[in-house]
Amino acid sequence: MNLTIVTALTGLTVLIVIVELLRRRQLREKYGILWIGVGLVMLPLSVFPQALNGLSSLIGIASGVSMALFFAVVFLLLTCIHLSWEVSRLEEETRILAEDIALIHAKLESNENAQ
């Protein structure tokens, strides 16, 4: 099978999966928009890979494929950093909520014992 067809089908599949996840509310909109953007970039570049060669020579990179791979790795690295930040923030919120609930339980128990 031709590589162009495989990559175009992969890009189309990514778009369909993301839209379906958004429709079922299993993916938040802020992440869905990001991945739809990735699919929309991936789809035309898979059909017209020569466009990468012109842009890469303009930047000074030898090959369009190398440039695409480099930007994909940078994008995934930034995505991982962002998700790590989100997880850290949510862990902190969960810890604070658990402490608040424990304090409320302790206060309720002391009030029940006082009565």
UniProtKB/TrEMBL annotation:
Annotated protein name in UniProt: DUF2304 domain-containing protein
Matching InterPro entries: DUF2304
Organism whose genome encodes this protein: Longispora fulva
Domain of life: Bacteria
Transmembrane domains' residue ranges: 6-22, 34-52, 58-85
Keywords: Membrane, Transmembrane, Transmembrane helix
